[in-house]
Amino acid sequence: MKSPFVNELEPNKVITTSFLVHSKEIRQKKGSGEFYLSLLLGDRTGELDAKMWDNVNEALDSFDRDDFVKVKGLIQVFHNRPQLTIHKVRRMDDSEIDFADYFPSSRRDPEDMWKELREVVAGISNPHLNALLNRVLDDPEVALRYRRAPAAKQIHHAYLGGLIEHVLSLCTLARLVAPHYPNVDGDLVLAGVVLHDIGKIYELNYERGFSYSSEGQLIGHISIALRMLADKLRELPDFPPQLRTLVEHMILSHHGQLEFGSPKLPQFPEALLLHYLDDLDSKMECMRALIANDRQVEGCFTTYSPALERAALKKDLYWNRAAGPERAKAVAADPARGSAATTPNGPVEAPRAPADPAAVPQPPVKPPAPQAALAVHPLFAPKPDSVFADKLKEALLPAGSKQES
User: pTM of the entire structure?
Assistant: First the structure.
């Protein structure tokens, strides 16, 4: 197993380890015009910016994107993010590495997820939808790719097994939400869930890095899914044409908006529900990954996410930083508080036994201090020389107490 991983790196330390090259750019230094390498390296725990400033000619053509490299260099912090300054680099042979160290993957076992998906399909009572989904999933190539494919190249569930994990999450949501609406056909929603992203098993390459296949670049996963659906429906001549159209529409419209790549807008309840569940699950995973993989060294917020159009709050760090100094002061003043529980609202003190009033000298009771006057904004403070203020006060007096002018 490689060591250290990206999430184990510490600033101001020289490391020797291996990475997968996610991107490689040749750039020029501003002053001298000399070339340097700008790289994005990664492993299963995250990504790391890297620069090679010296001896670039020796390394320029020795490796490329999607190669595995062994590097030696210094970890530093630049613009609040860790960056590796590479001193030495060499390309590694595939026999030297364990692929599991470099590709992010679902924490769930793919076989367990596949079994769960087949159980969901087995529970669909509509015989036509059940037959269609089983025909698709019984295909050995589809079954192999469905277990392994990511759900996206970067945005959400972008790891091996991400597609089936995303689909199972949607199945859970669909079975919770669909019964709430009497006019929604739960079987149809589940069929849309299983099939809506199935084109991604061919749209994406995921053997080394994650990238788009030629099919993915040219026609995209929605068109690929419709082609796969048509191939399987040829084997089911009794499948109702109207039901076929509904399933096709759910695939076509699941992105929800024309500008997001949907050829059609959702036009019946099941299609609309599929879109919103898909959008919800993808955004929740996108935010989870944004927080988990953020490379900011300081601060409670992540970098800006173009996909979410915002930065995200690292809530655990926010609570710890907010409660930490106050809790430290409390413990210093009273060590008994050191074992008290801490909540988002502050430390919770353990109950104390009441002291004996006779044994503890009581401080003299002071009369309550007069309540401080409320602060008044200067704009509304009384102006002693202001005729307008006097007239305003007079106007606000009760009618009986006003003086006749």
Answer: 0.69
